[in-house]
Amino acid sequence: MSLAIATDGTTQRNWLEKLGAGHVILGVALVLYPLVASDFFLTQIGGYSLIFGMLGLSLMLLAGYGGMVSLAQITVAGISAYAIAILGNNNSNILGFGWPWWLAVPFAVLAAAVASALIGWISVRTEGIYTIMITLAIATATYYFAQQNYAIFNGHSGYAGIRAPAFWGIGWRDAKPFYYLCLGLAVLSYAAVLYGSRSTFGMTLQAIRDNPRRMRALGYHVTAHKVFAWLLSGVIAGLAGVLLVWFNGRVSPGTIGVDAAIDVLIIAVIGGLRHPIGPFLGALVVVLMQTFAIDIVGAERFNTLIGMVFLIIVFVSPDGILGLWGRIKPHLAQESLRPGP
Amino acid sequence: MRMHRRTLMALAVFTGLTAPSMALAADDTIKIGLLATFEGPFTVLGEDGERGAMTAVAEMNGTVAGKKIEIVKGSSDASPDSAVRAARKLVEQDGVKVLVGPLSGDEGIAVKDYAKTQPNVTFINGTSAAQDTTLRDPAENFFRFSTDGAQWMAGLGTYAFKDKGYKKVATVAEDYSFPYTQVFGFMAEFCKAGGHVPSKSWVPIGNKDFSSVIAAIPEDVDAIYVALGGADAVNFLTQYQQGGGTAPLIGGSITVDQTVLTSKGKLKDVLKGTPSAGPTADTNDAPAWKAFVEAYKKQPGAFPSPSLFAHGYYVDMKATLLGLDQVGGDVSDGGKKLRDALSKLSFDTPTGKVSLDKNRNAIADIFLTEVTEGSDGNLLNKLVKVVPQVNQTLGIPEDEFMKLGAVNRDNPSCP
After folding, report:
1. Which of A62, B58, B238, B356 has its CA 20 to 30 A from that of A45?
2. Which residue range is the domain that position B302 belongs to?
3. Same domain flag for B370 and B234
């Protein structure tokens, strides 16, 4: 994706060049978006896309840099969502310790990260399709466990009445603050992944993806690197889980079901796994389709339309939307060589 | 130049996203949201609910108080999250001021909670029938003209004990609020009459393999009470029959509904003679019911006889339209007049008179039925008895009823 940092030969670049023009434009557009968008488009489309973009990003980190495709990202997010419900306040009369948000949130994210590392620790013994299978098994087992456990997960109905905190005089679930909160955390995660991918750890992880045997021979601890990647991806998924539970005001097994797990994979695949911006593009397309397909073709066949669009995207460009951009770009560049008016 | 193009690209993308909502209804139309399960395990049920709602709309020739009715559909998959998300879209994006739905129990409770945050929108239930949607902590702007799952069971427990002679019954039901409510309604009478329920199995929605559940049913029970819906009911009954199970069945309201009775296969022999109770009976020969069946059959893909989902959505949509008619289709005051009209509304449905109690929950007739084979080979629910005007507390004084506690997997109990 060419929104990545533009590289040129000079070593002394100013901050604008370092950031990349694409990033600046995208950033400004996203910050100004609330000026033109209705509340519905801010939260139900904007906020929701950013949340699922973060989930896709946590998968992209594993799959794109580590070569590990996980179907358990929504499970990890679900753990932090349930943790918020259990540690904070809910109105389901089960648990609800009433911790303030600044205590509950770090705990929830930590719980998600640790859970993610555990899932990683189990699944790094496998490769390729087996990683998908084992993470799918974990996601399904967690879903059914949450569905049938009443002491901790409160069964099918889950937890309701979870409120986003209000501080600094701002109710953070109001449309604009919530959008900016999602945007802030999404940008933070995005930048962290982008930075991390070029750090020593990121490079090592990508080398392990390409040739684990050689890396092991060079003396790298392959398993430790992979599990650490799972931990990092757990932090991002955990943050997304916190936003998700504040967004919905509730969490139930339906939130972490197999459908949702597959949604995250679809988001990452149709967005593209080569650059961290991919999952966000994918999330936007998926959320728009899921929200508006029913208006286009009616209630009977709208899921068919959603499926068709995804198929077409993957058929036209196996690299997802990112790959599509990669194909269009040369044509645009060609055009720009022509003398201007 | 490249940057210039990117700017254009970004602008194009973002202006696309912010296109103003097209929710501004013209003055001569009135928008009604219709929320049902058009995906997931209850799809068949949701589609029949839609047929019922559209029957009511067709009855008014698509207009109310001189305004054209515009139905905007929202889909959920029976999970509370998806119902709230769909309701949010209908209210906040499509701008509906009146919403009919949802279909399933936990969805109803979640939408009721959401209704509290939208005091200017009027919510009318679809067929969701959990007790606590209206009994405990109700929302001022949530109305239920269809009855709840415990009301639907009126008369069944006594009938099973006295007429059928079942003393010991095991229950198999889905694990969420609506089947809890149904089991509660059945056991309230059955236990009072002297029956025992030694084993209760709760299975998740969308369960495919029931072998462990079937194995756990005690062998010495006289009958099995089954409260499963749609695909779950078909799967359980098929597997129970294939496993050699022979105990007679007692059906929850949606277990021996048209959505299940019309399924293909050898279920017929198992289901024949199954007693049940619910808001409808297929062989009801009241003229109003027959007229409703004829009107319903004009809908595309209709069943031989309307399911209780078609009936519930019909009654609720009909009530909505009658209410709107009374206020001249005017909801510009945040729906206050409409809600006043709805609370006082009492009207004749195909299944008898319906009125609301103080929690805005319906008081209506309930039908005790038994499955029989119709002359054309289709299975039907034969009307055995009408239980008139059942209220939400099942005829028990309210304070006494509240003492029975909230329905859940362990309440009530009479092993």
Report:
1. A62
2. 29-146+285-363
3. yes
Please give the pLDDT value at position B19: 44
Q: Which residues of A touch B20 (CB under 8 A)?
A: 38
**Residue B19 belongs to some domain of the structure:** no
With beta carbons under 8 A apart, name residues in chain A contacting B103.
Answer: none
Q: Do B107 and B45 belong together in one domain? A: yes
Between CA B69 and CA B79, with CA B75 as vertex, the angle to 5 degrees is 140
Residues B334 and B292 in one domain: yes
The CATH number covering residue B248 comes to 3.40.50.2300
User: What is the count of residue pairs from A and B with beta carbons less than 8 Å apart?
Assistant: 121
Percentages of chain B per state (helix, strand, coil), in multiples of 5: 40, 20, 40
State the ipTM, two decimals. Answer: 0.77
Both tokens of B387, joined, read 């239980």
Q: What is the mean pLDDT of chain A?
A: 85
Residues 143-182 of B with CB under 8 A from A: 175-177
- pLDDT value at A326 more than 80: no
Span A2-36, pLDDT tens digits: 444 444 444 556 666 677 777 888 888 888 888 88
Contact between B190 and B169 under an 8 Å Cβ cutoff? The reply is yes
- What ranges do the domains of chain A cover? 38-257
Q: Is the pLDDT of residue B60 over 70?
A: yes
Nearest CA in chain B to A303: B39
Mutate to test the interface with B, among A30, A35, A140, A156 (most CBs of B within 10 A): A156
A300 contacts: CB under 8 Å, gap ≥ 6: B38, B47
Residue A148 to residue B177, Cβ atoms within 8 A: no
Number of domains chain B contains: 2
The stretch A163-189 carries a mean pLDDT of 85
Length of chain A: 341
